[in-house]
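Hello Y.,

Per our agreement to keep a running log of every chain we model this quarter, I'm adding this entry. I've kept the format consistent with earlier entries: sequence first, then predicted structure.
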Amino acid sequence: MTSTPAGSGPSPEETAAAHVHPAVRIAAAWTWRLLILAVGVYVLGRVFFRFEAALVPVAVAILMSAFLAPVVGWLERRRVPRSVGVLASVLVTFAAVGAALTFVVRQLIVGIPNMAGDIAEAIAGVREWLETGPFKLDSDTLRETSDSAISWLQTHQDAIATSALDTASTVTKLLTAALLTIFLLIFFLYDGHRIWEYVTRIVPTAHRGHVRGAGEYGFRTLQSYVRATVLVALIDAVGVGIGLAILGVPMVMPLMAIIFLGAFIPIVGSVAAGSLAVFVALASHGWLTAVLVLVVLVVVMQVESHVLQPFLLGRSVRLHPVAVILAITAGILLAGIIGGLLAVPALAFANRALSYRSDVPAPERSPDEDPPAEQPPLREEAVDLRDGG
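Predicted structure for the entry above:
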């Protein structure tokens, strides 16, 4: 009869681990991995927020380049020099945006004072309904609530005044960010492919090709997402605007512009912009018109969700509504409104880039997409030698 050598049996830790249920081990393994991912996302969000003055223009320039790259490619295929195509696309785009914003601001300046009386009447009507309607609120309670609101405004009037005085500083920051965005956009459109190849030189040689392919794969998906989002936002704004015009709601054009911009933040932005349209209808024409505007908004959003987005985006960039809501919430918590605006495009890009496989042929390129610039092979070989590849 042989004896087991000392030290050859299982250790106490191994014995204890053997008695742990497999489901618990799997849950523990998933838990610490998810915690690491959550910490990583949080750190990236905080870094983005810390350097948002520089990173936000970069992100906006990437989104705009995804939208304008097919236009530049289309001009280049028609023998227009690339530099001319880039400058023409950028100038026309910003001129159109500037003209539209100027028109909307003028409409708001004219329309809001004219609605002041309507808004006061609407507030009085809401107060009367709260007193005589199903809630039967006491007038003293309403008066205390309004007095509390007035008291809060008086208490914080210094902070409000300070914010108003910071307007000049805010305008300066916006102008600086706009100039930086234009500068980056021009170079991204003109030489974006080579910029991406230069950035990926930090990746080890063995994995560099896969990273470059995944980035291009995700950027093509980002192009489809941005183009489809712009088209969906335009259709939403036009559809709701037609409904508002038929119902006689004032400030149709500014509301259309707000709905167009709100559509770039899926679900949340559409709801916020639609609520503003309902409030304007309520203030100007009463409850019936407000309800009809709400019906128009619901119909347009249903058409967007079930017809436009599946048809324009397709399966390659469709995201589950739960993923969209979580991404927007995380973006807003980490980086405010800008985070909510950029969260869904970033998720769409990451979703496709992470699913890239170098052994699978890339999807066929649309005729409107900008083909990647040719890269001389000698340059890459020189990089590989310097990196030890």
